[in-house]
Amino acid sequence: MTHIHIDNISKRFGATAALSEVSLAVDAGEVHGLLGENGAGKSTLMKVLSGIVVPDSGSVTIAGKPLTLGSPQASRNIGLAMAYQELSSPANITVATKLCLPSLPTRFGFTVSQRELVARAVDRLQQWEAGHLDPTATMGELSLAARQEVEIVAALSGAPRLLVLDEPTAALPDPSWLFRQLESITATGTSVIYISHKLNEIGTICSRGTVLRSGRAVGQFGRNELSENELVELMIGRSFDHAFPAKGTAEVAQPVLEVRNLTVGSLTDVSLQVAAGEVVGVAGLEGQGQRDLFYTLAGELSPESGSVTVSDSNGGVDFALVPEERKTEALFLEMRSDFNLTLPLSGSFATASVISTRRRRDVARSLAAQINLPEAMLERTVSNLSGGNQQKIVFGRALAQSPRCLLLFDPTRGVDAATKLEIYRMTRDFAAAGHAVLVYSTEIPELVGLCDRVCSLYDGRIVAEHSAGDLDDASVLRAILGRTPELAR
User: Fold this and answer.
1) pTM to 2 decimals?
2) Is-contact 155 165, C-beta < 8 A?
């Protein structure tokens, strides 16, 4: 039985048609995939459903009831819940508060009962197999993966008629937890719209799906009807080659980066090298010390012991980091894109502390061309760009600093297939110019396809280094699970 009807939704922002007569239907108890490149209209459609954006035309019906468009309260009242990829909860509220919003328990109708608040949160965490999370912790104290779990549990806990998940596993080390929860909630008749760029997940969890391109619904598919290549081609409207760029073939040069016996946080006695022209990967399950490694090299953390050596920087910086969370760690969301892109270079177009707007825009246009960012995007505020274009700006700003070593921490998290390919190309081009790249990714196939070597972390130590013959998914996976011969003894 069809549970959700989205009929002919259209929305324009000035001359841009963000949505053009988009329609889709979701059955009761169905997980329906929604695919499309960044900027295809997925976010706008979700904002229409949540009441944040008022469409120019169209209607939505949930469980036989028409949704009053443009009212977040009406969306909540009709039974819609959402968990966003870009986590927006204030860092200073507790997990318990997040899980009990918007109906916080009160005492005498005035103050929140903390005891009842925590008790309710504990019940909800246990109900959704997340009892390992501390309800008294603040959101800012949690890892990215833990915050994502809290967002999902909060959305699940309201017994929604329609649950919308936007890249829900982008920060999760293991999606099987989420899949179990979806199986549980869909058994009660809840419908799910599942947005993901991970096509293997779409094939696993979704019975049907819809593809958006340039604001239009260009195709629908059932499970196993289309291959991953066919889905990507439908999303981007042209033939698409999934191949990673060619790896370097020159003999290994002198090290650009040498890390010796580094101990910091959960990382213990780690040593590694990255040579000029090399892309070296770091693999590891959540919390194995990868963040400590990258953020120490970037100067954000102070090591307890060990040394880091970088060869002559030739006028640039030693390191430039593309961080884990672009919105909270890299971008000024309400500033223009050209400002964000050129921020580290302000001294090059300033005279006596006065910035030349013309020179800044010239530099921004040059950088935009390098990262294939449409020039029209430079005048927009970053908050109005798609996630893929935001990530290009973060990447381009890092390249603009002329680092000897580029640090990429999960650089393709939550971006579409076409943008991923561009990030891979830029990474290999940067290395080919005689620089070094150190990259961490939650996706093992990405590391295997992109990197010359991969170092596997387990329990804060490098337990294996993979290259040539043993650089494959299975070898890396065994190592990060602690199943190397040395650890098995």
Assistant:
1) 0.74
2) yes
